[in-house]
Design a protein that fits this description.
Radius of gyration: 31 Å
Structural class: mainly alpha
Order of helices and strands: HHHHHHHHHH
Distance between the termini: 126 Å
Number of helices: 10
Shape: globular
């Protein structure tokens, strides 16, 4: 043991290069994992494109993206930005609508492979999106266009799959809770119901969805505003005027 400590005391300086070598190996592994993850993401998106090869712009209801030439134009860039906004709008229809999320819960479940692929494609497109007043170069515009195309394809595939499977991933008891929540949601947003009835139904909706579907903060805010709508108040006649001094009993003639 004394010999070990003597060796360590004499060659303490070896700790620095060994530490550097260790950190270099760790960083190399981390970089390798990052490169691998990016490659897998690209391969998955290519697979999604192949699965959607039969989907034409007319079928999806979206306009075809403009071809990118060597000289970028503001018009072409605006069309690509508009195409990205159109997909985001379709996504927000699920994110902000509790009824749609109940009907197609896979659209809010990042654990679903197709939903996760769509969310990753969205992040890539968002990162490449030009800032207000910025004009992308031809190369940047081409990369942004490809990202938006990936975003569109990934969303189309995720949406079709969510509409296909619906609530198949849930157990029989969980599907029953979803059905109950859907029925209560109708009451919670019905202006013909009393405020107390709407509030009670809304509370039950949140209880039934707890642990099944995670509503975004924005979806909760939209839903609560619908629930809080006041019923139209009936107009009442003004009160009858009281007796005047001239007509009051006991007044002088």
């Amino acid at each position: 043991m004394h010999d070990i400590w003597t060796f360590a005391g004499s060659y303490w300086w070896l700790a620095f290069p060994l530490f550097g070598m260790t950190m270099g190996a760790v960083n190399a592994r981390a970089k390798h994992r990052e490169v691998t993850a990016r490659r897998r993401h690209r391969e998955q998106l290519e697979l999604l494109k192949a699965q959607s090869a039969a989907l034409s712009p007319a079928d999806s209801g979206e306009a075809a993206l403009p071809a990118v030439t060597t000289t970028p134009t503001d018009d072409g860039q605006k069309r690509i930005v508009a195409a990205q906004d159109a997909v985001t709008h379709r996504w927000l229809e699920y994110e902000l609508d509790a009824a749609k999320l109940i009907n197609y819960p896979a659209m809010s479940d990042g654990r679903q492979p197709l939903t996760a692929a769509f969310l990753r494609a969205k992040k890539v497109a968002d990162n490449l999106r030009p800032a207000a007043g910025e004009t992308l170069s031809a190369e940047q515009l081409r990369e942004y266009r490809d990202a938006v195309t990936d975003y569109e394809v990934a969303f189309d595939v995720a949406e079709r799959d969510a509409r296909r499977v619906k609530d198949a991933a849930f157990t029989a008891d969980e599907r029953k809770r979803l059905t109950t929540a859907k029925q209560l949601l109708t009451v919670a947003t019905d202006q013909a119901a009393t405020p107390n009835e709407r509030q009670l139904a809304y509370k039950r909706v949140r209880e039934e969805l707890d642990g099944l579907i995670l509503l975004s903060d924005e979806a909760v805010d939209v839903l609560e505003k619908k629930v809080a709508l006041e019923l139209p108040r009936e107009r009442t006649a003004p009160p009858a005027p009281g007796p005047t001094p001239e007509t009051a009993p006991g007044s002088a003639a």
